[in-house]
Amino acid sequence: MKAFLIDRYAKGGALRFGESPVPELRENDVMVEVHAASVNPLDAKIRDGEFKLILPYRLPLILGNDVAGVVVRVGSSVRGFKPGDEVYARPAQDRIGTFAEFIAMNEADVALKPQNLTMEEAASVPLVALTAWQALVEKAKLRKGQKVLIHAGSGGVGTVAIQLAKYLGAHVATTTSAANVDLVKSLGADVVVDYKKDDFEKVLQGYDVVLSSLGKDTLEKSLRVLKPGGKLISISGPPDAAFARQNGSGWLFQLLMGLLSFGIRRKSKRRGVSYSFLFMAANGVQLGKIASLIEAGAIRVVVDRIFPFQNTNEALAYVETGRAKGKVVIAVK
User: Fold this and answer.
1) Rounded percentage of the chain residues whose pLDDT exceeds 70
2) Looking at the whole model, is its pTM more than 0.90?
3) Residues 178, 27: Cα–Cα separation, whole Å
4) Would you say residue 291 lies in a domain?
C-alpha cells in the first residue's frame, strides 16, 4: 500500500512517500480502507522526535492520528463491526499510521462515523474531540454554570472544546486573534480576548477551569485566572507523574515526568489550584457519544482546508504555520 513515512526523526523533515506492507489484522481488529485523515500538531512533534522517549516507535513509521473510512475486513473476535461499515477513529498511540491506504485498529478504538458528515469532515474529529471530551468531561468534570477558559479557540481542539463546554452549560471564554473573533463567537464563546491586544490574565478572573494548548508563559499566566480549587489542564505539557503512570512507565520515568512539571505544580499549589497534563487516549465509546452530539447539531466541525493525499507534506507544513482555523484534512481516496 502507499503511505507517508518517516525513516528517522528530523525537525522539519519531509515525510517519505513510498510503499509499505498492509498492516497485520489481529483477532480484535478491524481493517479500514482510509478515505480521509487529518493532520495534527502531534504529527509534527512525533516527526521531530519530541515524543521519542514517551512513545518509542519503531522506524520506519507511518504518521497520522485521525481516520475516517470503510471497514474491509474484521478479525475473528470482532462483533461490533462488519465489512462496509463507515467508521472513524483515533488509533491507539502505539498503532498510529493513518497517512496510508489501509490501517488496522482494535475495534474498541473505533466508532461508526456520524451520518451527517462527509469522510473528510469525520476525519477531522477524533483526536481533537477526544481531547476536549477527556479534558472537560473526565478531568475537569465541567458542570453547568462553571466558567472555563479555552486557549486558542480557533484551533482544532479549541473549536470543539468551546462547543462541548457550551453543551455542558458552562460560561466560556477563549483567546484568539481579531481575525477569528466571529468564528469563535459563532461556536458559542461568551467572552473573546484578542491575545495580540489584551492580556487575558488581566481581563479574566474567577474561572473554574483553564484548558491550555500553548506554551510555558501562557500556562503560568493562566494560574491568575483561576479561583481557589480551580483546575489547570494542559495538552502541551509539561507531562506529570500521573501521565507516566497512565502510560505504564516505570518509577524512574515517573520521577522524570514529576521533575519536568515540578515548577508549574508548585506554582499551582501556591494558588490553591491543581495542574494536570492530558495526553488523550483512543476511545471508541467516547467517539460514539461525540457522534451523537454531532448528529444532534450540538457540535459542528470546522475544516480549514482539504489537501489531496499526494500533498500530505504541504498539509503538514500548513498546520505548522499555526494559522489554520479548525482542522486540516487529507483526502486519501
Assistant:
1) 97
2) yes
3) 51
4) no
All 3 cell numbers of residue 200?
487575558
Q: Which amino acid appears at position 128 of this protein?
A: V
SS3 readout for 286-327: HHHHHHHHHHCCCCCCCEEEEEEHHHHHHHHHHHHCCCCCCE
Is the CB of residue 222 less than 8 Å from the CB of residue 201? Answer: yes
Provide the CATH number for the domain around residue 45.
3.90.180.10
- Tell me, what amino acid is at 310? Q
The three three-digit cell numbers of residue 96, written as one number: 498510529
Q: Is 107 in a helix, a strand, or coil?
A: helix
- In terms of domains, do 218 and 313 share one? no
Has residue 292 been placed in a domain?
Answer: no
Set of cell numbers at residue 93 = 498511540
CA-nearest of 282, 325, 318 to 111 is: 282
pLDDT at 244: 67
The domain tally of the chain equals 2
Q: Which helix (H) or strand (E) holds 329?
A: strand 327-331
Cell numbers linked to 141: 468534570
Place of cell 486573534: 177
HEC secondary structure over 143-159: CCCCEEEECCCCCHHHH
Domain that holds residue 266: 127-277
Three-state SS for 226? strand
Cis peptide before 60 (omega within 30 of 0): yes
Region 50-57: mean pLDDT is 84
Which 3 state secondary structure label does DSSP give 230? strand
The distance between the two most distant Cα atoms of the chain, rounded to a whole number of Å, is 58
Question: In the structure grid, which three cell numbers stand for residue 188, read together?
Answer: 458559542
Tell me what the mean pLDDT of segment 9-30 comes to: 97
Chain segment 92-149, per-residue pLDDT in tens: 999 999 999 999 999 999 999 999 999 999 999 999 999 999 999 999 999 999 999 9
Q: Do the Cβ atoms of 122 and 87 come closer than 8 Å?
A: no
CA–CA distance, 66 with 111 (Å, rounded to integer): 12
